[in-house]
Amino acid sequence: xxxxxxxxxxxxYGFLLLWLLYLLVLLIAQLVSKKGLIGKKxxxxxxxxxxxxxxIVYLIFNLCWGINYNRKGIxxxxxxxxxxxxxxxxxxxxxxxxEKVNASKEKLIIYQAPRxxxxxxxxxxxxxxxxxxxxxxxxxxNPSSIxxxxxxxxxNYTGFTGYYNPFTGEAQVNTSIPVFxxxxxxxxxxxxxxxxxKEMEANFVGFLxxxxxxxxxxxxxxxxxxxxxxxxxxxxxxSTAAKHYRSKLSESxxxxxxxxxxxxxxxxxxxxxxxxxxxxxFLKQNKQPEGLWSYDRVTAVINAYYKKYGAL
Length: 312
Known about the structure:
By secondary structure, the protein is mainly α. It folds into 2 domains: 8-64; 73-309, no CATH class. Helix content is 66%, strand content 4%. The protein has helices at 8-32, 34-38, 40-64, 73-77, 87-111, 118-135, 152-155, 182-193, 199-213, 216-237, 239-247, 251-266, 271-284, 298-309; strands at 146-148, 162-165, 170-173. Strands 1-3-2 form a 3-stranded mixed beta sheet, sandwiched between helices. A hairpin with a 4-residue loop joins strand 2 and strand 3 (170-173).
C-alpha cells in the first residue's frame, strides 16, 4: 500500500462509516414506519447482521494484527530486564532527559533549522529506520508506507495524533498537529508496522529510530516526548520534584508546549472522554493492563536500556 499517494485505509474507514450511517437511517426508517412497527423481526435481523459483521471484522483484525500482542517484543530482543521503578530511577531519568531535550532544542535554535514538511518527515522517518537497522537488523523497515491521515481534522477532536491501520498496513500521521510532535509520532506508528503492538514498545522503538536519524528535529521530538512521559511518572510519586524539573525546560520549549496546549484547547470535544474510555478498554483487553498508561511504561524500558548500555 506504500506506493499509493492516498491512504487506502482512510478510504476504507470512510466507506465503513457511510455504510454504518446508511444502516442506521434504514433502522430509524423502519422504526417510524408502520411496516417497521409490525416487522420487529426484520429490525432484529438487521441488528444481528451488524453484530455478526463486527465480529468478522474483529476476527480479521486479530488475524492481521492482534496476534502481535503476544510477541515477546523489543525488551526480549535486546535482553532488557524491566524492574519495578522507584523514585530515584525516575528522577535520574528526568535529569538526564531534561539535559537532552534542552540541548536538542538549543541546537535547533543555533542552526535556525526550518520546520520540516510532511514529505520530509516521512522521508527522514524511513531513513531513520534504515540507520537503526544497521545496528538492529530486526528493525528493518521495507517497504515504506507512511501517510498523512485524510481525517486529520477529525482526529484533532478525538485526541489521536496518529494510528496504524492493521487492515492495509499503513502508518497514519495526523499532520495538522504541531510539527515538532510529528517526527516521533511517525516513528512510533512505523514501530507498529514492524509488529510492535504494545504502546510502550512502539514508543521505545520509535525513540531508538528517531535518535538514529541524527536529524536535530527528530532528536528534539523524541527527547521531548520521552521527557514528558518520565516527568508524568515522577509527578505520581513526587509532584514537587516533577514541577521543578519541568520548570527547568528552556523558554523556547515552554513556548512549544504552550502551542500544543492551546491546540488541544481549541479542539476539545465531547468525543474525547468517550473515545479515551473505549481505547483504554481496548488496550486492557489486549495484553496491556495499564490501559492508556501503557504509553508511560516506556520509561521502564528506557531505564532498563540506559542501565544496560549507559547511553540514551
